[in-house]
Amino acid sequence: MDMAAMESRLKALEEQVKAQEKKITLLEDIEAIKRLQKAYNYYVEHMLGDAIIDCFSDSPDVVLDWLEGKWLGKEGVKKYFARVASGDAPPGFSHQLMPTAGLITVAPDGRTAKGRWYVFGGIFWSDRGKVNGGSLTSGIYEMRYIKEDGIWKMLSVKWVIPYGVRIPEGWAMPEDIGGRFVKGEAPSASQNEGQRPRVPMPVPDIPIDPDDLRYVSGYIFPFHFKHPVTGKETSEAVRNACLKPLGAD
């Protein structure tokens, strides 16, 4: 292989490497945006105000385009979530948002992106296991994101609600589901006529802790990850510390 052929081959390899690096960067950007969006939805579920606010850019182009109107800039985001950021959110409130069917489109310059998501989940307020009304709601998000100093942040949220289902009663809360275990009311092997026999509950290696907060409405299952924008721990431990265990009743 002569020198000209070798230089041509090296140039082709360099171009391939650059193309692969561009594809890898795109995939990394898409994954980072998905992580940001999913983290935001977890924070909204329990209204962790500061964590929600920190998901947004400081850009003046930030917009919350809600059904009630629009909130502009980072200050608009703070205004909307002011109550929950101050710690006044009801501990049993849940605004579950399960993101699905996410489609991310990153701009050619890699600085901004758009996303579209379905979200679905229960919205209710449980007062020590008692729910007064509630609903299952479907939503569609159209999002804009911006990359600042290598970190993706939310730039705008626009959403609509295609439908919602009101559910006035019949909710089963953690107190209902887990209370029998706390009280030692494990299922027995007995059965009523015409029913299949129940499988007895095996004895656990470690007995249940009556102070386990998993059986209390408003408990936030601790996140294993830090905030995708700030890199800091979130405040679920502080919120959980305010709850009263079932075993204390």
Report on this structure.
This protein has 249 residues and is α+β, with helices and mostly antiparallel strands. The protein has a single domain (3-248), classed as Roll (Nuclear Transport Factor 2, Chain: A). 30% of the residues lie in helices and 27% in strands. The chain contains six helices and eight strands, in the order ααββααββββββαα. The chain has helices at residues 3-45, 49-53, 73-80, 82-85, 174-182, 236-240, and strands spanning 63-65, 70-72, 93-95, 98-106, 112-127, 130-131, 135-148, 151-166. Strands 1, 2, 3, 4, 5, 6, 7 and 8 form an eight-stranded mixed beta sheet that branches. The longest helix has 43 residues, at 3-45. The chain is globular and about 85 Å long. The relative contact order is 0.14. The model has no long low-confidence stretch (mean pLDDT 88).
Strand content: 25-35%
User: Rounded to an integer, what's the Rg over CA atoms?
Assistant: 24 Å
Structural class: alpha+beta
Return the domain count.
1
Number of strands: 8
**Name of the CATH class:** Alpha Beta
Mean pLDDT: 88
According to CATH, the fold-level topology is Nuclear Transport Factor 2, Chain: A
CATH architecture: Roll
Low-confidence stretches: none
Provide the succession of SSEs.
HHEEHHEEEEEEHH
User: What's the story with the biggest beta sheet?
Assistant: 8 strands, mixed
The tally of helices reads 6
Helix-residue proportion? 25-40%
Our measurement of the CA-to-CA distance between the termini, rounded to an integer number of angstroms, reads: 84 Å
Shape: globular
